[in-house]
């Protein structure tokens, strides 16, 4: 493809990334795995250089007065780097997501249709402070035959630059083009990237709700991810208290900033008086602030919950509580206020659980367990690309299969459509092979 | 869900459609099939009424001076209506696309993950003149457990209104809510529909390229469809002339307005002098106008092709021809100018064919057969929802599986995430069942 000289540097970079992707996508499993092994080796050899660049990023961030949690995410110590490199080797050993034949059908004698797994092409991944994300994403991209254009957090610029150079140098010794892995460093480039429909096949944003929403609203490229994670737990009339308390505590407090932590607890009125006081005590011991509707306020000590609470992802040790008069009311509340992420029911009534799992319109519907299990690693996917709250697949926690698509191959021997139309039309055999 | 009185009628309609969808999605196969059978019966009983309304539409369109092809699409004669009703009965007998378990895994003892096929929710389908599309879409929607909001062509308003009433009346006698099938009648409602992200899960536009592009660019709701269909056929150095001629003629002339008809023929220079004259003669006999690059112009009588020709979907008996010096050049041309729809190679060289099928970045990659096979019915999908040229699945011709998604159900016995994290963390079993 000829690039006109008037096109921007990013345009050229994206064009070259697509060319690299077309080549990468035609490599076999061993060739892609060798490239991943070369990345692991290159990173291991360059550890001192990488850690030094990260130290510079950390020092600069500290001088700017960065918040402690962000600093911790930016900091790439030796043990974090080593375990990330070990993760690269894990990716090398994952099953190949490409080449799977999911349909193999004779349409007629000598005319055979195959649906074959193939890469998406070019991924645009925008992530925040954690520099090890660049390593993880690069190895997943190569495993799945995709080129990637990365944009890391501003604070991590030096780390990301060194990591990209090390990975590109490693790739240069393999059959994979170094142009398969690309780094953007300015915020302006994000907006331009979002307009490159002809080169970029999927955008994966990792960051705040507002950031993901901004991306979703400013691109025609498909976006894999989720803005909100407003998850619910519903304690049914037939809930078992000995399950309800530990699951509620786990779902709220085990990692409150996670998208799969609960924000609202729905409690059936039949058990509210019995359950809420011990629940409030258990949650209080973990430092959770409670906000309740009027019924809840009569039973336990809590702040009043307003309409806004039902729509809020606290990402913090805060829980809103509402008393509902039926399973139907719980389902309706979740379908209205939830973000289609993950919602659970605690009940010993299997019919109620089945109703809940069928009628709640979320990617994850859970019975008698914590919403915190909504995660690609916990599902056994090996690697997690993200969690999608869209309805169209891939939905929920997404592993490598979110980075691949398929194409239809049709192999004939001179077959033409006219043979199968009009008077005397030949019938298709449609015989699965 | 409570609807504020300030919301529009369409908002309320969409809200009610979503409620109907949640109920419809929880029905079993037999219940949904009974509703489809009731629709077929209702339509059969109401045939005189439907044909009369269609006659009115046709008379009004004729008075407005409607073009003949559009008139033919609008006209719903007795035989077309009967065969459409027969199609409804076919949908009744298709396999149920819902409820398939595509993953069933023990995460740990007593903690079982299932990925289960489920409906998308509410479909927005915007179609043109053909009133029978309303019947087809309604039956596919109910089969797949989805509600639908339909907008037909302006010319077909009377036909669509009667059809919708007949279908709703038929549904009222079943467990499916009549609110599952809805009709919009004004163009203004389309724009509002495109903004109803919270209710509508998928938009399926059927119409001109410009119309589909307009839809794609004006909604955050996923769109299933394709704007362009710029398909190619490449005659390789090792092409067999006895296959090349009939396949080229079929791919161009069998139905030139179809999206899977070819627009550009790429010819390897090694065979151009031998192949182009007989090809030009065969195409000329079918009334095809040829536009060639400079090399082509030296070999056959044709108009000059300009850069714009490589980007044009003629949808007519016009074919552009370009001579290329290698397989690589053919692949590059297709990846640059094609619309990722369907592209074919004619060659006796299997290595070249495999290279082509691997490196051409299209939903359909064909060897030694006509691109006209790109079609859900020909692929054996039973019913076609549309053809998608997006990279993310569903891609290519899409059957009922394009109207379904999945959710993850997790069934536990009090399991919490804390058990599996930190020191002394329990390992997951990840045992496929």
Per-chain topology:
The structure is a homodimer of 433-residue chains.
Chain A: H1 9-24, H2 29-45, H3 47-63, H4 68-74, H5 78-93, E1 101-108, E2 111-119, E3 122-126, H6 132-143, E4 147-151, H7 157-172, E5 181-184, H8 187-194, E6 202-205, H9 209-217, E7 231-235, H10 241-253, E8 262-268, H11 269-285, E9 289-292, H12 294-299, E10 303-304, E11 318-324, H13 327-337, E12 342-346, H14 350-359, E13 364-369, E14 386-388, E15 396-398, E16 404-415, E17 431-432
Parallel strand pairs in A: 3-4, 3-6, 4-5, 7-8, 7-12, 8-11, 9-10, 9-11, 12-13
Antiparallel strand pairs in A: 1-2, 1-17, 2-16, 14-15
Helix pairs in contact in A: 2-5, 2-7, 3-7, 5-6, 10-11
Description:
2 copies of one chain form a homodimer. Chain A is α/β, with parallel strands linked by helices. Chain A folds into 2 domains: 9-224, Aldehyde Dehydrogenase, Chain A, domain 1, CATH 3.40.605; 231-373, Aldehyde Dehydrogenase, Chain A, domain 2. The first copy, chain A, contains 14 helices and 17 strands. In chain A, the strands form 4 sheets. Chain A has a 7-stranded parallel beta sheet, with helices on both faces. Chain A starts with 8 loop residues before the first helix and ends with a strand. The model of chain A is unreliable at 1-5 (pLDDT under 50). Strand 16 of chain A pairs parallel with strand 13 (364-369) of chain B, so a sheet runs across the interface.
